[in-house]
Amino acid sequence: MSIIYDKEKQVFRLDTRNTTYQFRVAEFGFLEHLYYGRRIPDTAEYLPVRIRHGFEANPHEAEKDRTISLDLIEQEYPGFGVSDFKVAAVSVINGDGSNCIDLRYVSHRIMEGKYSLNGMPSLREQDGFWKTLEVLLRDPYTDMEVTLVYGVLEEHDIITRCARIRNMGKGTVYVNAAHSACISFPTDQMDMISFYGSWGHERCPERTPVRHGKITVDSVRGISSHYQNPSTVLCAPGATEDSGDCWGIALVYSGNFAITVEVNDFKQTRLVAGVNPETLYWELETGGVFETPEAVMTYSALGLTGMSHNFHRAVKYHLIPKQFIDQRCPVLINNWEATMIDFDEEMLVDIAGKAKELGVEMFVMDDGWFGRRTDEYRGLGDWQCNLDKLPSGIPGFARRIHEKGLKFGIWIEPEMVNEDSRLYEEHPDWCIRIPGRKPTRQRYQLILDFSRDEVVDQVFEQLYEEFKDAGIDYIKWDMNRSMTDRFSAALPARRQGELCHRYVLGLYRLMDKLTRAFPGVRFEGCSGGGGRFDMGVLYYMPQIWCSDDTDAMERILIQYGTSMIYPPFVMGAHVSECPNQQTGRTVSIDTRAALAYFGTFGYELDLNLLSEEEQEAVRKQVRYYKDHGLVCAHGDHYRLTDPEKEREYTAFMSVSADKKAAVVAYVQRVSGANKGIIYIKLKGLEEQSLYEIPELGLRCSGAALMYAGLPMPVIKADNEARVFTLCAG
Ligand code: DGJ
C-alpha cells in the first residue's frame, strides 16, 4: 500500500519504493507536515516537539497553552493571516475585506489510480501504479475549503501535488496566492539549486546555501521564461552527483510561477511552489473553484544523479505523449540559421535535396512561410501560405519534400500577432494591451488574448484548415515575447488579475486541440530558444528547442543544467554553422555533433555550403545518430563532470536501459603544453560485462571502466570533442 492513514495516530504516510512522505492531523485539526525523505518504517509523529518560545502567537483554542504555536507547527498547506508568519501556501481576501484563511482537517479519501486536472496538464496514469489521496480542509468561519491532492507513483519515487480551493461561503472571495505544494524541513543545513539564465543562456545551475529570510525564483513574463526555470532542488550541503539527500520539485506549468524557500530562526526551511502570487487575483463566487497546477516532487538519497533519473523517468513514462516514448526524433534539417525569413521555395528545396543526399530524415521550414511575412515586422496571425514565397502552397510544398523521401515539418507562432496583419486589422482588440496606452512591442509583435475562447478557436481553425491535407509530420511551436500591458478587453476590472493564468489555460486548450487534431505529428516547443522549457509544454510535445545558442561549447552548460530535471531526449539540439552566429566561435563539426547527439539531433545550416570533407562528416554523424541516438538521448544520463568547476574538460554519458550499450562524450575545452593524462570514471555500467570501445581499441569490464577509469586521448586543440561507443559483448 503506498498510501496509508494510521487512524490512531492520525498520520498519513505516502511511501514510494525508496521514499516516505508523512503528515498528520495535529491539535485543533491543523495539518502538520512530519517528514519527507529516505524511506522509513515508522510513523514520524514523534518528531515535532512542542515547546514554549518567546513572542509566540497561539491559536485561540490553545487557551493558556503557549506551546502550541504555528511558529513551530509546520503546516502542510499554510494559510495567510492567522498566526503562521512564514510564506503562505494560500491567501484569500474574504467578502468582508479581511485577508485570512485558517484551514483545519475535515476528511480524506484514498483512491486507486491518478487524479487529473481540469484543463491543465499533469503526469499521466499510463501503465503506472498510481494512488491518489485527497484531504479536505476547511476554514470553519468562512467555509472556504481546500482539497489537497496527492498522487503517489511508487516505482519512480514520485509524489505529485495540487490544491483545489473552493468558496463554500456566502460572499465573493478573491484568491491572491494559491501554491501547488508546500514542503518543510526541520533544518537550515540545505543548499538550493535553481536554474537562471537569459536568451541564449538558459538553465544555468546556481547552488547557494539557503539563508534566513526568503529566496524566490519566479517569472512575471507570462511564460515560465529563460530567466528562471519552474523547478528547484534542495539538497544536503555535501550532496554530490552520487550521494547525499536531494529533493527536487518541478511545476507542470508554463506561465508565471514562483518558488520560494524561506528559513526562520528556528532552523526550519519551507518551500512553496506554484502560480506566481504577484500576478494572481482570482474571483471566486460561491461554489467557485480555483485549481492549482501540478507540482512534481522527488527525493533521492543517491545524490543529484538519482534525483535526475527519477524526474527523467517520470517525464519519459508519465508526461510526454505516449506515442513518442523511446521514439527517436528523425534527424532533421531546419532552415532558420541558413536563410532566416528571407527564402523562396527553390532555396528550401535545394537545402532539402542536399540533406536527403547526406542521410537526413526530415526537412523543417522555419519562420517566414505565411501571410505578409517578408520580414520580422509583419504577418504573424495570418496562418495562410505566402504564395509569392511558396507557389506550391503548403500541401504542394510538403509533397515536394515528401517526394524526396523526407518527412516535412513546419514552424508556427500561434500566440502572436503583428499589427501589420489581416487578423489585427479585423480584431484589434484581440491582443493583450491596455486601452488608451501604446503597447510595448517585442520583436514588433503583440500577444493574442488567449484568455478568450473565440481567439483560441479562430487560431485553431486557421491552422487546422492550412495543415489538414498537407501530411505534416512535425510542428515547431514558437513564442517570442514576454507579456506586458496585461489587460484583457473581455474581463471586467475586478478580474484583470485572472488574465495571466487564464492565458495559460487558453494556451493549453489550443495545444490540446491541435495535438489531438494531429496525433501523429511530433510537436516541438520553443520560445526564443528555451524560454518555455517546462513540464507543462512537455505534456503536449515530446521535445523543446533548448536554446537559440547553438554554439557547442556554450551548449555544454545549457544542456548540463537542463539535464538536472529534464532528460536529453526532450532537448532540441542541432549542429549549426561556424563561425557560430551567436558567439562567433569556430569548432569542428564533430565537436558540434558530439553535443547534439545528446539531444534530438539535427542540422541548422545550409548543407550545400559545407566542404566535401564536412559533408562526409555529416553523412557519418547521421549514420551514428541513427545507430546510437536512442542510447545517447533516451538512455540513462550521467553527468561526469561539473562544467563550471572543471573548466579544462567536460564529460558526460548515457547508458541503455539493459546496460549493454553506452556512449561517452569527452570535450577538451582548453588545451595546454605538456599535460598529464586525464582519466574519466564511467558510471551506470554492468560491473561484470565486457565492453568493446572501438574508437580506443579497448575491451574492458564495466568495473574497470567505472572504478579505474578510462584514459582520455591527448588532443592538441581547444574545444575538441571525442565520442566513445561502448558495446557489451
Ligand atoms: C526563435 C526560435 O528559437 C528560432 O529557432 C527560430 O524559430 C526563430 N524564433 C524564428 O523566428
TrEMBL record:
<keyword id="KW-0378">Hydrolase</keyword>
<dbReference type="InterPro" id="IPR031704">
    <property type="entry name" value="Glyco_hydro_36_N"/>
</dbReference>
<dbReference type="Pfam" id="PF16874">
    <property type="entry name" value="Glyco_hydro_36C"/>
</dbReference>
<feature type="binding site">
    <location>
        <begin position="366"/>
        <end position="367"/>
    </location>
    <ligand>
        <name>substrate</name>
    </ligand>
</feature>
<dbReference type="InterPro" id="IPR050985">
    <property type="entry name" value="Alpha-glycosidase_related"/>
</dbReference>
<feature type="active site" description="Proton donor">
    <location>
        <position position="548"/>
    </location>
</feature>
<feature type="binding site">
    <location>
        <position position="526"/>
    </location>
    <ligand>
        <name>substrate</name>
    </ligand>
</feature>
<feature type="binding site">
    <location>
        <position position="199"/>
    </location>
    <ligand>
        <name>substrate</name>
    </ligand>
</feature>
<feature type="binding site">
    <location>
        <position position="548"/>
    </location>
    <ligand>
        <name>substrate</name>
    </ligand>
</feature>
<dbReference type="InterPro" id="IPR017853">
    <property type="entry name" value="GH"/>
</dbReference>
<protein>
    <recommendedName>
        <fullName>Alpha-galactosidase</fullName>
        <ecNumber>3.2.1.22</ecNumber>
    </recommendedName>
</protein>
<comment type="similarity">
    <text>Belongs to the glycosyl hydrolase.</text>
</comment>
<dbReference type="Pfam" id="PF16875">
    <property type="entry name" value="Glyco_hydro_36N"/>
</dbReference>
<dbReference type="InterPro" id="IPR038417">
    <property type="entry name" value="Alpga-gal_N_sf"/>
</dbReference>
<dbReference type="GO" id="GO:0016052">
    <property type="term" value="P:carbohydrate catabolic process"/>
</dbReference>
<dbReference type="InterPro" id="IPR031705">
    <property type="entry name" value="Glyco_hydro_36_C"/>
</dbReference>
<dbReference type="InterPro" id="IPR013785">
    <property type="entry name" value="Aldolase_TIM"/>
</dbReference>
<feature type="domain" description="Glycosyl hydrolase family 36 N-terminal">
    <location>
        <begin position="29"/>
        <end position="285"/>
    </location>
</feature>
<feature type="binding site">
    <location>
        <begin position="476"/>
        <end position="480"/>
    </location>
    <ligand>
        <name>substrate</name>
    </ligand>
</feature>
<keyword id="KW-0326">Glycosidase</keyword>
<feature type="binding site">
    <location>
        <position position="443"/>
    </location>
    <ligand>
        <name>substrate</name>
    </ligand>
</feature>
<dbReference type="InterPro" id="IPR002252">
    <property type="entry name" value="Glyco_hydro_36"/>
</dbReference>
<dbReference type="Pfam" id="PF02065">
    <property type="entry name" value="Melibiase"/>
</dbReference>
<feature type="active site" description="Nucleophile">
    <location>
        <position position="478"/>
    </location>
</feature>
<dbReference type="GO" id="GO:0004557">
    <property type="term" value="F:alpha-galactosidase activity"/>
</dbReference>
<feature type="domain" description="Glycosyl hydrolase family 36 C-terminal">
    <location>
        <begin position="650"/>
        <end position="726"/>
    </location>
</feature>
<dbReference type="InterPro" id="IPR013780">
    <property type="entry name" value="Glyco_hydro_b"/>
</dbReference>
